């Protein structure tokens, strides 16, 4: 998948919503526990009910790894289902991997080839040779952590390096990596005012923005400071959609939540032409 | 496993060697490809031939994930074999995970409970709430990346924050985390002179030192600057041991390489009493 395909989806759907499939067996409706693969059954129902309202799905790999082999089977089934039933949607493995050279290549192969995701999130701490192996893959996106939406972000990401916050140094440095046009960046919505500064460094790249909804960020603020002429935003929501209901109507409830966000997004898209 | 158990092993074996099980199907002896699980067959042979010469094994999860479900089966078999046959050895999942709050807890559960590793490597970029969920587990170690041995380490880790290199800020900050006594730190051996400075910040903690051997670091230098009264070092070697031979004698060849390192380590242990 490339940027043109993504923009095409955004235009068609009037949405730049990414749904985070952080599927927690303890939070899904109890009646699904009788299914042979409850996590996949849940994901499939959510996807079928929301695919027309979003442009991307983002399973966080931790939720699958926590169940060992069984969890990896659920993840494999989910991505296979997405690729076969809804091939135009962007699929993101929220894996936050970071390792060097040949090891990074292994991770890239795992997510881009073996599982056939369109994108993977990557941590920047180990630098260039931990990111470039991902960037080698054409028609795939590497989504680098820049500024995250958690409290711990202030431990290191906002510390000043040569008079600039570390996350800005990360953005600037990443632009020098080979195939940096295949990058997107994770920028937390709880700090929407930072988006103005971020856009000075990366005026064009797509930003993946978590923290709208359950974590309290405002969609309007994010669009005000982060939207570009070619949208440039994917806004993620996970728990608020996934766990809108624990009853048999969970998928419809999820669709209602997603539709609320999609409508707000459409308004923002129209507002900005 | 706790520090006392680890020191007991180090004393018994005259070794602080960690063997990195970065098992690459393209590099293992071709005759093993006929086995039902070639990667596990290779690991088992290496472990059986070297367990008396080392105190830890460290599979890098990327090498297993690259083979999808099959790879996770190989990893599960490997850790099960280690736990059942050699329970006194330290087992490290070199996963370099880093995510927040409930997601970090999922990763911790995956590696500490589901797979039953003694330790896991973690990336620091997301800060406190991405590390503390791992530190909650008693008798488990969380090994935080501080200074890695790759070229990209100079992109961010050595950049100055308030007059100090970022990796030193990481060390100092991590000491303020709850249960910081359960931390170890990854410090690359290609920069042995940095160990002197690092020991001023973390005088007691164990350091996991990759980059001795194939990556060119010197064991003597590492011990000179990094060893404490209670050893405080785990030195990792991967490729030089694993791929000492591609013939039927690969396990014996690996043992010879490991023995070379173990003897050098014993000398260093005796030198420093």
What does this structure look like?
Two copies of one chain form a homodimer. Chain A is built from twelve helices and ten strands. Chain A is α/β, with parallel strands linked by helices. The first copy, chain A, has one domain: TIM Barrel, CATH 3.20.20.70. In chain A, the strands form two sheets. Chain A has an eight-stranded parallel barrel, surrounded by six helices. In chain A, helix 5 links the parallel strand 3 (90-97) and strand 4 (119-122). At the A-B interface, helix 3, helix 4, helix 5, helix 6 and helix 7 of A face helix 3, helix 4, helix 5, helix 6 and helix 7 of B. Chains A, B: Keywords: Decarboxylase, Lyase, Pyrimidine biosynthesis. Chains A, B: It catalyses: orotidine 5'-phosphate + H(+) = UMP + CO2.
Key terms:
two-stranded antiparallel sheet; 45% helix; 273 residues; 8-stranded parallel β-barrel; homodimer; TIM Barrel; globular; alpha/beta
Question: Number of domains in the coordinates of chain A?
Answer: 1
Along the chain, the helix and strand elements of chain A come as HEHEHHEHEHEHEEHEHEHEHH
Shape descriptor of chain A: globular
Average pLDDT, all residues of chain A? 94
- The number of helical elements of chain A comes to 12
